[in-house]
Task: structure prediction
Amino acid sequence: MILYIDPGTGSMLFTIIISVIGFSFYILHVLWVKLKFAASRGKVGKTDKNKIPILIFAETKRYWKVFEPICRELDKRGVKIVYWTTAKDDPALEDHGFKNITTEFIGEGNMAYAKLNMVSATILVASTPGLDVYQWKRSKFVDYYIHVQHAANDIAGYRMFGVDFFDALLLSGQYQTDQTRELERKRDLPAKDVELVGIPYMDEMRKRIEKEPREPHDGTCVLLAPSWGPNSIFNKFGTKVLEELIATGYRIIVRPHPQSFISDPGMIESIMEKYPESDKLHWDRSSDNFASLNNADILISDFSGIIFDFTLAFDKPLLYANVNFSPDCYDYYWLDEKPWTLTVLPRLGLELNDDNLHDIKTLIDTCLTEERFKKGRETAREETWVYMGEGTIRTVDFIMRKYKELTDDNDTVSTADRAD
Result:
């Protein structure tokens, strides 16, 4: 007799099996990392001179805003670097007048990861998490992996094991360092190099705000910027949040997370069809979010990193959605204390939930007028944005210092002193 398993049960069993295999692999890999670390006593030997000295990897064109100031500073110092991207239309591929930077489109998906998994480089810098967890593996020909932040919030906000196998993390707040050390202790991992450097792309954003004034407009402009996945605003409230916003008579900009069009295309397309572009409603799908952030008076979001760009760099208030965030698949799950993001949100604005959604206009007006939220933003900046204005210099200083340690010959990549 053949045992029958219905498709739903079969799918569940398959998921469980894959999860067990993945976690077993993770445990074995942790042991292997510890053995290698113990054998080398945490030191890296001199590297092959034929390797790419410094390689920057960008998983998406959106990361150009993260890496552009870093590339500019490296180029200014005369440092030869290579920039790999998986986006054909990455702004990095345009001519920026750099003399020392080579950019290359390396394909998408498995093609890109095949190159990454075998690349030979002294240092690889990335903002993409998940190294050595799924398809992106540590290359045995890369000596040192550095993770650079692309949002000013918890380092434990990635999906599980997001930064476990990097060699260094460049962070912007002491609480992030504390989270890193707690995860290392609980997972019995060797200590990574952790450096507080600030946030280069937010420093650049502040400069841009000073140079590009907002477009003049009458009345209040609201930016609705949902994240993606089951915890997002649209998955929580459906279209009711848009209905209530339209009823306020305020100007509305809707900027869904780019991943929404990949993970939830049917839902997003149906909402866009139901609420088409008008003189009061604008759908923003541009790669650069600056105009939307600059022109809006208040942001409504859930747990997206855009929250901190808007409140800290643009110094504007927030309505944050209560989406009953579940930490189960994130590194948050391992922490003893509540994530910093969840503790800081009440200082930045008011909570939007099922009970007060109908009164969204009053919530917006309160956030725009109460002084306590401005003070809350000042405190949050102190906690998550150290060395404001110095992020790029400190990031590049760390990269160059580490390169010199690894090669004991800095002259091979740096031919010019840093310009002030």
In short: The chain is about 40% helix and 15% strand. The CA atoms of residues 226 and 272 lie 14 Å apart. The two ends are 79 Å apart (CA to CA). The longest strand covers residues 52-58.
